[in-house]
Write a structure and sequence with these properties.
By secondary structure, the chain is α+β, with helices and mostly antiparallel strands. 37% of the residues lie in helices and 22% in strands. The protein contains three helices and four strands, in the order H-H-E-E-H-E-E. It has a four-stranded antiparallel beta sheet, covered by helices on one side.
Length: 123
């Protein structure tokens, strides 16, 4: 997608459509929506070039997981930072870290990802 802040609201709506399709419970769906919104916003504001989003629902006998990957063309990796109490920005990755099972950045720095554990019995 084009790196335009208008896209963030569209991506949130698309994310929620997938959450309904995959029958993800509402509280978890909201966590995923917020994480996607934060990662896409970071890619638009700090990345370069086009922004990509991939969401996968992977289920096996041992686990069910939802993964989110956001890519841009900036090789500088996203970093978790500490925001001061009066800062109005800078908490996005902290929120992703708190809401998700785990998060990270690819070796090339161009993909920031997070995963969510899905309730057993859902695919």
């Amino acid at each position: 997608m084009a790196p335009d802040r208008v896209r963030v609201a569209q991506i949130r709506r698309i994310t929620m459509a997938f959450m309904r399709l995959w029958d993800v419970p509402d509280p978890l769906a909201e966590d995923v929506r917020l994480a996607v919104s934060e990662l896409v916003t970071n890619a638009i504001e700090h990345g370069h070039g086009s922004v990509g989003l991939r969401m996968r629902n992977t289920s096996s006998e041992l686990s069910s997981e939802l993964s989110v990957e956001v890519t841009d063309e900036n090789a500088v990796p996203a970093l978790l930072r500490t925001a001061e109490d009066d800062d109005v920005r800078g908490r996005g990755l902290f929120l992703v870290a708190v809401l998700s099972k785990e998060w990270g950045v690819s070796d090339d720095g161009m993909t920031t990802w997070c995963t969510f554990l899905l309730p057993t019995g859902r695919s």
